[in-house]
Amino acid sequence: MSIDMSGREVALIGVPTDVGASDRGASMGPEALRVAGLRERLQAHGLVVHDRGNLSGPANPWLPPVEGYRHLAEVAEWNRKAHEAVHAELTAGRLPIMLGGDHCLGIGSISAVARHCRETGRKLRVLWLDAHADFNTSAITPTGNIHGMPVACLCGFGPAELTGIGGQVPAISPKWIRQIGIRSVDAGEKRFVHEHDLEVFDMRFIDEMGMRHAMELALATLDERTHLHVSFDVDFLDPDIAPGVGTTVPGGPTYREAQLCMEMIADTGRLGSLDIVELNPACDVRNRTAALAVDLVESLFGKSTLMRKSSRG
């Protein structure tokens, strides 16, 4: 199936903060993606690209956790700003692409998408492409870093400053999430994931069943009333091909597996919003990881390696 995205309006929203992370540097992610040609590559596929520049917010104070949360006030402010920016683009009929920044920002972007879905009567499906489940709480986190908590916060488990962004608690149901590529989960977090029945296609599943089968299941039952959000943490990828992240975990998807993942998402024609997070140029080699991320995002918007004639479209 070939999906024509020509004329579709997208908005790039830079959110340059590493306030939720364990390492400094993700704040430089938005510029690295721009340097890697994200806007130009999307325009080459016929998309109308509006670059909104970067949001501004509090500096990273680099302090220890307080009552299980590190930098809670700063994380909340950045997420409120991300929420409003993403929601405004959705309301205007544009597809928002949030350029992070660390993955705590998924709270703001996904709560905005959920709010938009409530306002328009649409269903929501979230694909969480990540090495980590990000389903920690203050009671089980080993670090207090909020980039390990966004899925839990979106599902209503966390401080009111974060769970209430978007006006409804919980912002989403665990049933709406499909996690792909997971291979690093804390012990308490694993129990919590099982208690709430998150659907997880971890690397063992992908090794045994293949990326194609994982994506077929993750994308099953989408229809014309479904808004598909992709939250792409660059540490989803194997660090051999994507070293530019703060929390590398060996054993991730290969280049071809990641391309197949993105192409199958594109084939649905349902992509409505996107996060690109945790790109850390301080850990990268000549912006190699940013270039790979841009290449994969291109595939989300229709670039395909398909040479044979499709039997599906």
From TrEMBL:
Give the cofactor binding note.
Binds 2 manganese ions per subunit.
Q: Does the keyword Hydrolase apply?
A: yes
In terms of InterPro entries, this protein maps to: Arginase, Ureohydrolase, Ureohydrolase_dom_sf, Ureohydrolase_Mn_BS
| Spans traversing the lipid bilayer | none
Pathway assignment reads: Nitrogen metabolism; urea cycle; L-ornithine and urea from L-arginine: step 1/1
Which Enzyme Commission numbers does its entry carry? Answer: 3.5.3.1
**What GO molecular function annotation could you give as one example from this UniProt entry?**
manganese ion binding
Name the domain of life this protein comes from.
Bacteria
Record PROSITE patterns: ARGINASE_1, ARGINASE_2
Q: Which reaction does it catalyse?
A: L-arginine + H2O = urea + L-ornithine
Binding positions for Mn(2+) per the UniProt entry:
H103, D130, H132, D134, D233, D235
One Pfam family named in its UniProt record:
Arginase
Task: Enumerate the cofactors the protein uses.
Answer: Mn(2+)
Keywords on this record? Arginine metabolism, Hydrolase, Manganese, Metal-binding
Sorted alphabetically, the Gene Ontology cellular component annotations on this record are: cytoplasm
Q: Name one GO biological process term.
A: urea cycle
Entry's SUPFAM superfamilies? Arginase/deacetylase
The enzyme's first-digit EC class, named in words, is hydrolase
| Family label | Belongs to the arginase family.
PANTHER family referenced in this protein's UniProt entry, alphabetically:
ARGINASE
Official protein name in the record: Arginase
